[in-house]
Amino acid sequence: MQFRNDIQGIRGLAFLLVFIFHLNYNWLPGGFIGVDIFFVISGFLMTSIIIGQKDNAVFSFYDFYVKRLKRILPAYLIFIIAVASVGFFIYLDRDFWMFQKSVGTSVLFISNILFSRGDSYFGSRLDDNPFLHTWSLSIEMQFYLLLPLILIFIKKKYLPAVILLIIAVLTAYTDISMYVRNETSSKYFSLPARIPEFMVGAFYSLVLRNKVNFGKMGNHIFAFLSLAILLLSAFLIDKNSFFPGSLALIPTIATANLLVANNNFISDFFAKKGPLFIGELSYSLYLWHWPIIAFIRYYNDDYHLNTQEIIFTCILTFTLAWLSYRLIENYFRKKDNSTFYRYSISGGVLLVLLTFLLPKVAEINKIPEIYTSPSFGLGSSNQKKTEVFGNKDFKNDKILLIGDSHALAIKAFLNYIGQRNHFSFSTVTTEGLPALKGIKRSEIASYGMKFYDSSQQFAEFTEQNIHKNKIILINCSSFISPMSTYQSVEKIATSLKPDQKLIVFSTFPSVDLDPVKINRDYIKRTSRTFKVKIREDNRAALKKLAAAHKNVYFYDLSKSKVFKNAPFYRDTLMYYNRTHINDYGSVSLAKDLEKDFMSFFSPILAKERQ
């Protein structure tokens, strides 16, 4: 296929949309559609190349796949080695496992599968993972495995109909998954959900390969309207939209229109030196821009980049991209396959060594896990078994602690008080949401769906244990978001047996920044000021619940003075992230509130033991 400067310029536009979105999504809420533009162009070009070779009886699967790898892998491998090397000195030890998985899945072009599973509940977020953007390259490589099979083994006359059928079926499947099952997050990274975007380009390549001609003025209007729709999509679609699916067809069809529009001023603009230059660098620009942004966000634990950071990101991105393009991309385009193979094997070996050795080197700055992650009571967290804590000489006490990760965080609190005040308790907790029947799936945001599904697997087990015990203690991050959590707890309150009691905790406050990232030690080093946040609405709802039911009691954990200088207490780290206290914090809380809690709890406990 003849090289087209205008397509290269459209690639430049695609990158700029993504880049602006990544710098600050408020500037361009739908800038992520730049990735979809890349997909359409890939489908269009690859189909043109394969069909052209098929028509001339010169197509080779081997040559096709090797050329794709030679185009993508050299710069990609250097990028992964460099980012992995830097990342092990920026990432915290607690996040190394996720970081290593990101490296491994990116190398294998399956990172989209990893990221489709969502955030690690206790670990690093996706929006500061330096390999997050590799999901699109993974999908592209996966699609390249499928496209030749479709185009070569299906007769050419049937291909347009087959491609339209694939687009229709997979778009419908994606819509159903998102609108009915609320699987927006997982579908965003899904190959089946993205295949229609490639196929739009493939269809245009097959049916309109020789372009469309509406006359001089008609071509101008057609191209202008297509570009306008594309740019409007970048402003009107946002991260809360049900995307991809049918909504993705709007920008993808608009992109495809630009690819087949005959002589027009839009194509002429994209073929000019400026857009062409950015387009030529677009692959390397895409590779390098995101890890720079992600590392800054991770280190600062702040999504928003300041002006200096934005300028720094722009300069470093274009510098690294230019070096990558000139020294790597162009170099390997001219080299034979044997050179490429030697490079790939050497780079792969180096990467394996780095991913195993660098964590050992980075252990110099390791912070003890008791300060950086949950470490007490994990045997009854997300498992269908209970553990007993406190003073086990009183193992017949029928006291049960349930809830989400905030309940997990106060196991050490109750254990300390129980050991000193002669009571024991059993626990069963889950991550993200309490394991209660009645919590509505429809109220759960897409990013929390995996936690909902996981917690609901333990709902029956939790209910069985509620029936076995006389005092039920429940703590969770929020009882009113979703509101069905409050309704589920209220149902427990109304169905208590005469000899049962329910205690609801107003949980400990949160802070606005991840203190482990900011402080990077368990002894206070930072001068940053943290804002302490107490959910007053949550506390008010629990007070109301306790006032409305005879056997329901309310206790406020957030009143403790240990939170005065949160996330530190006596210059020692007491939070392991923004929203969870660590074991040191939990025990410190117990030491401060022991007398107050026992004055509240002793009368309830005495009645249970009668």
Automatic annotation (TrEMBL):
* Record field: transmembrane: 7-25, 31-51, 72-92, 135-154, 161-179, 191-208, 220-237, 243-260, 281-298, 310-328, 340-358
The residue ranges of the Acyltransferase domain are: 6-325
Q: Which UniProt keywords apply?
A: Acyltransferase, Cell membrane, Membrane, Transferase, Transmembrane, Transmembrane helix
Bilayer topology term: Multi-pass membrane protein
The protein's name: Acyltransferase
The record's subcellular locations are: Cell membrane
Q: Name one Pfam family in it.
A: SGNH
Name the predominant localization.
Answer: membrane
- InterPro entries in the cross-refs: Acyl_transf_3_dom, Acyltransferase_3, SGNH, SGNH_hydro_sf
Instruction: Give all residue intervals belonging to the SGNH domain.
Output: 385-594
Q: Name one GO molecular function term.
A: acyltransferase activity
